Amino acid sequence: MKAFTVDRYGKKSSLRLADVPTPELRDDEVLVQVHAAGVNLVDAKVRNGEFKLLLPYRTPFVLGHDVAGEVVKVGRNVRQFKLGDEVYARPDDLRIGTFAEFVPVKEASLALKPKNLTMEEAASIPLVALTVWQALVERAKLKKGQKVFVQAGSGGVGTFAIQLAKHLGATVATTTSTGNVAWVKSLGADVVIDYKKEDFEKVLSGYDVVLNSQDGKTLEKSLSVLKPGGRLISISGPPDPQFADDMKAPWLVKQVMRMLSLGTRRKAKRLGVGYSFLFMKANGSQLRQITQLIESGAIRPVIDKVFPFASTNEALAYVESGRAKGKVVIKVR
């Protein structure tokens, strides 16, 4: 099969279009013929080697964390899916590889594609949707009437988070650039701060939850907009000791993570707020709940650009540029 592979770690290394064997299917997996693949910042971070401590992929390996496609083969223990099913998923860590013609996905991580979405739209959903669900629903337990601050409202995570938080009945604040203010409001944001004109930490206060997706400086400022007892959940680091325990990381890695987040955790404690790091996990049952929201019209996908399969490197570069409004997708088939 054709696939885009990481031959060596590094920021300047391009993915290589290669002929590679179709992956072996395990008993609990489904082989998906890839129609479309979402592109995420985590793809660039994995290629750059930023997660080598946690996710030791051996080069060469196929990149890609989002898929929509058709079931063409099922493992002997698979019961929920059959040949011809249209599905979507975020494959499990250490089993990624959606920038390819075929990818194996665990049955437990797979869901039927929303009926009202194209393959390209469906491929834009899994990773960002599961990230937001696990942050706001599973961890923050966001409730009606609470206030949530979602950073970078026009990005892939931001556009989904605004819609889900609004659906849950929360008041939503976000940041964006001047040209996107009205558009982000149309997604459901109640308070929109143009970061080119205002500092959000001077405008916002008394928030229950912050979803942090930006750098360390933004994280520090974000802690101060929370009310006592509020929670900041970060998807961009630094990792905390709880995450290291959940990952069953080696002792040395645990100590590194403890030190990386020490300053942030101390500041949070001084302010009387909570800090935690989230690294999302593949989850088919959560994806099925997300499917219901999409099919009901409560949430819609937001796609900036669809690139042809041959332009996968260009798609990844565009995501890295930070200019995308919503998601970037590769059309494979």
TrEMBL record:
<protein>
    <submittedName>
        <fullName>Zinc-type alcohol dehydrogenase-like protein</fullName>
    </submittedName>
</protein>
<dbReference type="Pfam" id="PF08240">
    <property type="entry name" value="ADH_N"/>
</dbReference>
<dbReference type="InterPro" id="IPR011032">
    <property type="entry name" value="GroES-like_sf"/>
</dbReference>
<dbReference type="InterPro" id="IPR013154">
    <property type="entry name" value="ADH-like_N"/>
</dbReference>
<dbReference type="InterPro" id="IPR036291">
    <property type="entry name" value="NAD(P)-bd_dom_sf"/>
</dbReference>
<dbReference type="InterPro" id="IPR050700">
    <property type="entry name" value="YIM1/Zinc_Alcohol_DH_Fams"/>
</dbReference>
<feature type="domain" description="Enoyl reductase (ER)">
    <location>
        <begin position="10"/>
        <end position="330"/>
    </location>
</feature>
<dbReference type="Pfam" id="PF13602">
    <property type="entry name" value="ADH_zinc_N_2"/>
</dbReference>
<dbReference type="InterPro" id="IPR020843">
    <property type="entry name" value="ER"/>
</dbReference>
